[in-house]
Design a protein that fits this description.
The protein is mainly α. 81% of the residues lie in helices and 0% in strands. The protein is built from 13 helices and no strands. It starts with a helix and ends with a helix.
């Protein structure tokens, strides 16, 4: 009875962590607007600041870090490579396609994640989750339909690499949720920073841009990743990926609140559909776990 009583509270905490991670990630657009640097420069500084600010934490917790590395070595490395791959592929995709064309591809993330979790983790895939995914993708399509542009297939193909990396990382972290993944975040920052360096011009940054860069990373990025890792300790990968779509609909809301650029009615309507689909799925999952 004790185990049954603790499962719902743990799942609820996982949902809250996933929603908080989506909120943190969704602020990136507002922050990047205030940095006003090319994408590769932002990518380099985001990675460099993440690596630099996390290093003292890793040294301070070196005993636990070494335990995590010994216990999860290959999994930590794979998670880091997948995270770095998603960082770099996202920058490449934005250079080849409009933002809306890139975002629409992310609607595949819950489906790919659910299939991978089913194959590799034996996690169940319920009918209501599939229906929630379909509804969320429809909502996302409505949100970005007005901004889609033709001739962006190359960028959308690269964006799908982001989806594969994200889905793979969901499965890796969910599989090894018994160990801390903080070292993988640091290593992902190092890898993505080294990849971005040949294309960036780090010397172009100004003192006025540094506070916003710190807000982006380690602020937004590190907080979002840590919350996202924590959520996967408690909820299935498919549910976490579905909740992750909230990031895509909350981004325009932040732009509206801080820059006064109100999204059109279709964008808001599509966002409501995505949020409703995720909420209904969480509710039905909670009923199943307590039933």
């Amino acid at each position: 009875m004790k185990t049954l009583a603790t499962l719902p509270s743990s799942s609820l905490l996982g949902v809250l962590f996933a929603v908080a991670a989506a909120i943190a990630f969704s602020t990136a657009g507002v922050i990047v607007r205030r940095i006003d640097l090319p994408a590769w420069d932002v990518s380099f500084w985001r990675s460099a600041l993440l690596v630099g600010t996390m290093l003292p934490l890793l040294i301070w917790q070196r005993r636990q870090v070494m335990i995590d590395i010994r216990n999860g070595g290959p999994a930590l490395l794979l998670s880091a490579v997948l995270l770095a791959g998603s960082f770099v592929s996202f920058i490449l995709a934005l250079g080849l396609a409009p933002v809306a064309n890139v975002l629409i591809m992310f609607g595949a993330t819950p489906f790919i994640t659910a299939i991978a979790a089913r194959l590799f983790l034996r996690e169940p895939l319920h009918r209501h989750t599939v229906l929630a995914m379909l509804a969320a993708v429809a909502g996302l399509a409505i949100s970005v339909a007005g901004s889609l542009q033709p001739g962006a297939l190359a960028g959308m193909a690269v964006a799908f690499i982001v989806v594969l990396c994200m889905s793979g990382n969901y499965v890796v972290v969910r599989h090894r949720r018994d160990i801390g993944m903080t070292p993988s975040i640091w290593l992902a920052g190092l890898i993505s920073g080294l990849v971005a360096l040949p294309f960036a011009h780090p010397e172009n940054v100004t003192w006025a841009q540094l506070p916003w860069l710190f807000a982006l990373s380690p602020g937004q990025l590190a907080v979002g990743l840590l919350l996202y890792m924590a959520s996967l300790r408690r909820i299935p990968a498919a549910q976490a990926a579905l909740l992750g779509l909230l990031e895509l609909v909350l981004g325009p809301v932040w732009v509206w609140l801080f820059d006064g650029e109100k999204p059109d009615d279709l964008t808001l309507f599509g966002g409501v559909i995505v949020i409703s689909a995720a909420a209904v799925n969480v509710w039905l999952d909670s009923r199943r776990s307590t039933g």
